[in-house]
């Protein structure tokens, strides 16, 4: 018979509080966080498009919010989350095809994802402001 | 040769211990691939209608190409985000009852978001 009392004394596999934070690990966590943020953020799109379908009066309220400073900051953050999650997904595709699993490649891909998402977000918002 | 511990029936079904096969794994990658061009289009669409007001957005969505593309954005994104959140729930929630409740909530949320957006796009697309 198995001794159940010994179960709790078994060593656990290392987890978040045990590991020293590393870039690749933080990128994995951020991929989940950005995914979750995008998930919740779809409610903003629901608000905006349902208001548009309801009529101009409703739309002005929603559109006014997204035009406010708070709204613009949320959209800026949402742009970064989207682009970061997208580049992170492309990184996963590279891994799925069997490339980039080495230590140096992983580090390079992590840095590239982070830098790329920041640069692309700024570029998108330069276009947003120019076309305003 | 390594012994296969699966039963002959299990091997034929090929669904593994989760009894769901690789369906979710594949669909997550399929929608990830479609999300890349679709969400880039989505960003361009939002930039193109900024500041045009209600009339501008309605006019844009009454172009069938925009309406169809936006419907594809919604379907692809909603399928992808539902599977993604399911993985997160399954990874971090271990109490069986709570996990089932959250998985149900996840599906309800994805269906609600998807239906609300599809209805809105169609209503505007068909003429407000």
From TrEMBL, chain A:
<protein>
    <recommendedName>
        <fullName>Succinate dehydrogenase cytochrome b556 subunit</fullName>
    </recommendedName>
</protein>
<comment type="subunit">
    <text>Part of an enzyme complex containing four subunits: a flavoprotein, an iron-sulfur protein, plus two membrane-anchoring proteins, SdhC and SdhD. The complex can form homotrimers.</text>
</comment>
<dbReference type="Pfam" id="PF01127">
    <property type="entry name" value="Sdh_cyt"/>
</dbReference>
<feature type="binding site" description="axial binding residue">
    <location>
        <position position="85"/>
    </location>
    <ligand>
        <name>heme</name>
    </ligand>
</feature>
<feature type="transmembrane region" description="Helical">
    <location>
        <begin position="108"/>
        <end position="131"/>
    </location>
</feature>
<keyword id="KW-1133">Transmembrane helix</keyword>
<keyword id="KW-0812">Transmembrane</keyword>
<comment type="function">
    <text>Membrane-anchoring subunit of succinate dehydrogenase (SDH).</text>
</comment>
<dbReference type="InterPro" id="IPR018495">
    <property type="entry name" value="Succ_DH_cyt_bsu_CS"/>
</dbReference>
<dbReference type="GO" id="GO:0006099">
    <property type="term" value="P:tricarboxylic acid cycle"/>
</dbReference>
<comment type="similarity">
    <text>Belongs to the cytochrome b560 family.</text>
</comment>
<dbReference type="GO" id="GO:0046872">
    <property type="term" value="F:metal ion binding"/>
</dbReference>
<keyword id="KW-0349">Heme</keyword>
<keyword id="KW-0408">Iron</keyword>
<feature type="transmembrane region" description="Helical">
    <location>
        <begin position="65"/>
        <end position="87"/>
    </location>
</feature>
<dbReference type="InterPro" id="IPR000701">
    <property type="entry name" value="SuccDH_FuR_B_TM-su"/>
</dbReference>
<dbReference type="InterPro" id="IPR014314">
    <property type="entry name" value="Succ_DH_cytb556"/>
</dbReference>
<dbReference type="GO" id="GO:0009055">
    <property type="term" value="F:electron transfer activity"/>
</dbReference>
<dbReference type="InterPro" id="IPR034804">
    <property type="entry name" value="SQR/QFR_C/D"/>
</dbReference>
<keyword id="KW-0479">Metal-binding</keyword>
<dbReference type="GO" id="GO:0016020">
    <property type="term" value="C:membrane"/>
</dbReference>
<feature type="transmembrane region" description="Helical">
    <location>
        <begin position="36"/>
        <end position="59"/>
    </location>
</feature>
TrEMBL record, chain B:
<keyword id="KW-0472">Membrane</keyword>
<dbReference type="Pfam" id="PF01127">
    <property type="entry name" value="Sdh_cyt"/>
</dbReference>
<feature type="transmembrane region" description="Helical">
    <location>
        <begin position="101"/>
        <end position="122"/>
    </location>
</feature>
<keyword id="KW-1133">Transmembrane helix</keyword>
<feature type="transmembrane region" description="Helical">
    <location>
        <begin position="67"/>
        <end position="89"/>
    </location>
</feature>
<protein>
    <recommendedName>
        <fullName>Succinate dehydrogenase hydrophobic membrane anchor subunit</fullName>
    </recommendedName>
</protein>
<comment type="subunit">
    <text>Part of an enzyme complex containing four subunits: a flavoprotein, an iron-sulfur protein, plus two membrane-anchoring proteins, SdhC and SdhD.</text>
</comment>
<dbReference type="GO" id="GO:0006099">
    <property type="term" value="P:tricarboxylic acid cycle"/>
</dbReference>
<keyword id="KW-0816">Tricarboxylic acid cycle</keyword>
<comment type="pathway">
    <text>Carbohydrate metabolism; tricarboxylic acid cycle.</text>
</comment>
<keyword id="KW-0812">Transmembrane</keyword>
<keyword id="KW-0349">Heme</keyword>
<dbReference type="GO" id="GO:0020037">
    <property type="term" value="F:heme binding"/>
</dbReference>
<dbReference type="InterPro" id="IPR014312">
    <property type="entry name" value="Succ_DH_anchor"/>
</dbReference>
<dbReference type="GO" id="GO:0046872">
    <property type="term" value="F:metal ion binding"/>
</dbReference>
<keyword id="KW-0479">Metal-binding</keyword>
<comment type="function">
    <text>Membrane-anchoring subunit of succinate dehydrogenase (SDH).</text>
</comment>
<feature type="transmembrane region" description="Helical">
    <location>
        <begin position="38"/>
        <end position="61"/>
    </location>
</feature>
<dbReference type="InterPro" id="IPR034804">
    <property type="entry name" value="SQR/QFR_C/D"/>
</dbReference>
<keyword id="KW-0408">Iron</keyword>
<dbReference type="InterPro" id="IPR000701">
    <property type="entry name" value="SuccDH_FuR_B_TM-su"/>
</dbReference>
<keyword id="KW-0813">Transport</keyword>
